[in-house]
Design goal:
The protein is an alpha+beta fold. The chain contains 7 helices and 4 strands; from the N terminus they run H-E-H-H-E-E-H-H-H-H-E.
């Protein structure tokens, strides 16, 4: 017997297929429809629709609040290090300048990006680029920027 989480996942994926790889839902309405708590919807979204699994989720506040889910397509399916890295970054809440530099150098070493892309990405996540952000928030902002750039490199919208 399928669990409630499995049923919610299946329903969302069916909706995405019908919606050409993207849907916009209201979490509370979907919870009512599935006869569950809104937190159950959140759980499914955060565990089964991650960036590393090929999904991008945007939350919109106001007007009842909606969630937009887009399915992404791998641009370079053979780039296993890049996919591993995106999954690993999902577990972090911040990344230091040094860790970001090592990460980007590894991407280049595994031939997941060339020298020019590495330099551009490094310029975007360096302390110099983020100097207007408080030191306390800089590593969090750096992680967000790095994850989004890697996702843009690895995926395209369906």
């Amino acid at each position: 017997m399928a669990s409630l989480s499995d049923l919610i996942e299946k329903m969302l994926k069916e909706m995405m297929e019908a919606g050409d790889g993207a849907i916009e839902i209201n979490r509370n309405e979907l919870a009512q429809q599935m006869n569950c708590a809104p937190s159950q919807i959140t759980y499914v979204l955060t565990t089964r629709f991650t960036n590393g699994q090929g999904y991008y989720i945007e939350s919109r506040r106001g007007g009842g609040g909606s969630i937009r889910i887009r399915q992404l397509q791998a641009l370079y399916p053979g780039r296993s290090y890049l996919m591993h890295l995106i999954n690993a970054l999902e577990e972090l809440s911040e990344i230091s300048q040094h860790e970001a530099q090592v990460t980007l150098n590894n991407c280049q070493a595994y031939q997941d990006m060339d020298e020019i892309v590495t330099k551009v990405m490094w310029a975007a996540v360096s302390d110099r680029a983020l100097q207007q952000i408080s030191a306390k928030e800089r590593d969090r902002a750096r992680l967000s920027i790095l994850k989004n750039m890697l996702l843009a490199l690895a995926f395209e919208e369906a």
